[in-house]
Amino acid sequence: MLSGRAGSVTARHPTRPSTIRIMTALRLRVFAVFALGYFVSYLFRGVNLGFAPFLTHEMGFTATDLGTLTSLYFLGFAGAQIPGGVLLDHFGPRRVTACVMLVAAAGALVFGLSHSMAAMMVGRLLVGVGVSVCLGGAFKATAQHFPVAQLTLVNGLVMAVGGLGGVAVGAPLSWLLTIAPWRSVSLGLAALTAAVAAIIWIGGPRTRDTHHQASVLEQFKGTAHILRSHAFWKTATFSALTQTVFYAMQSLWVGAFLRDVTPAGTVDVASRAASLVSVLGGAFIVGNIGFGALARAFERRGVSVARFSGVTMALFVLVQALLAARAPLPAPLLWAAYGALGGTGILTYAVLAEYFPARLIGRVNTTFTLVIFVGIFVAQIAVGAALGHWSAVDGHYPVVAHQAVWTGLIVLQTVAGLWYFMPGRRAGAAQPAMES
C-alpha cells in the first residue's frame, strides 16, 4: 500500500534529522513543480469565461457554439486520461507531464492564431490533451513522495494552487482583456505553458517505482478492472457529478448566469460578475485547504473521509438550490460557499488511494478524472443547448432558462447522493479484486 512505501524512508531512520530535512525539501519541490503544472491546466479550463464576450462579438458565436468550443478542452482531457494513466505508471510523472504539456502549448498557439470555428476547435482539443496529465501527474507524484495520511491535505493544496487559476480567469483576466486582445493572451498562455513544462522536466525528481513495471497491455487490463468495479462507481459517482457541475459552470456558464440573473438596475453587471467569479475562485482555494485538514481532523474522531466528503458534497447541492431559487442572501456569501464546497469531491481521490493497490494509483486517479471530464464535456454542450431553447435578448437569456438548467442538474446530483449514502460495498471491497 501507499502508506508503507511513501513513509518508509523516514520510518527506517527516525533518529536522522538530516534525512528528514532532505525528504522535506524533496517533498516541497515535488509539490511546487507539479502544482504549478496544474495551475496552468486550470487557467486553460476557465479562460473562455473571459474570452466568451469577445468570441460572441468578433466571431458571432452562439451559446451552443461557445458550449461546444469550450467543451472540447474537456473532451481532449477525458480522452487522454486512460492512456495518460498508463504512461504515468510506466514512465513516471516528470517525463510524461513535461512532454505532454508541450501539446497544450501548441494548441494555445493554434487557438490564438485561428480565424475559423473549426481551427479553434482543433486548438482547444489539443489544449485539453496537453494538460490532461497535470492533475493525475501531480497526484501520482504526491502518492510517491508523501505518506498516505498526508495525501488528503497535500492533494487539497495542489487543488488550491490550481484554484488560483480560477481566481485569475475572473477579475484579473477581465482587466487584462481591457489592455490586450484575447489572441495575444492566448499566445502568452502558450509561452507560459512551454516554460512550465521545462520547469517540471528540470525540477521534477527522477523517481522510479519500487514495484514491478507491468506491460502496457497489463496496465490497460488494470484500468478495465477499475471501470468494471461496482464499488468504484458507488464511491465515485456522486463526487463525479458534483465536480462535473462545478467545473462546467465555473469554466463558462457561471458568467452567463451572473450576467443574466443579476437584478435589473445593477451598475456595471460585467464587472460585478467578474468579481464574483474571483470570489468563487478564492473560496475554492480556501475550501480545498480547509476541508482537506478538516477531513483528517474528523477522521481522528471516528468520521471517515468518505462520509465527511459526502456531507460536504450534499451541502454543495443545497447551495446550488439557494442560488437557483435566488434566495435573499448576500451574493458574495452564496458564491463563496459555492466555491468552497464545490471542490470537496476531491477528497474522493484520497479515499480511493487508501483502498486500491499502489501499482494502480495512476490509473485509479486518471480513470476517476476521466469520468469527471466526460461529464463536464457533456454538461457544457447540454447547458448550451438547453439555454438555446429560449430566445436571447441582446445576448442575455431569461432567468427561467437558467433556473430550469440548474434544477435539472440539482436533481441528478440528489439521486447520486442518495445512492452514495445507501449501505453497500465501497472501494475498500475492491482491493482483493484489483490485486488478482
TrEMBL record:
One of its GO terms (cellular component) is plasma membrane. Residues 30-426 form the Major facilitator superfamily (MFS) profile domain. Keywords: Cell membrane, Membrane, Transmembrane, Transmembrane helix. The keyword Membrane applies. The chain crosses the membrane at residues 26-46, 66-88, 95-113, 119-139, 151-173, 185-203, 231-253, 273-294, 306-327, 333-356, 368-392, 404-422. It is a multi-pass membrane protein. Gene3D superfamilies: MFS general substrate transporter like domains. PROSITE patterns: MFS. InterPro entries: MFS, MFS_dom, MFS_Efflux_Transporters, MFS_trans_sf. The keyword Cell membrane applies. SUPFAM superfamilies: MFS general substrate transporter. GO terms for molecular function: transmembrane transporter activity. This is MFS transporter. It comes from Paraburkholderia eburnea.
